[in-house]
Amino acid sequence: MSEVLVVDASVALKWVVTEVGSDQASDLLTQMAHGALALVGPEHLAGEVGNGLRKRVAQGVLRADDALSALDAIAALELEFVGGEDRWFRSLAAALDWQLTTYDALYVLLALDLDAELVTADLHLIETARKRALPVRPLLG
Question: How many domains does the chain have?
Answer without folding.
Answer: 1
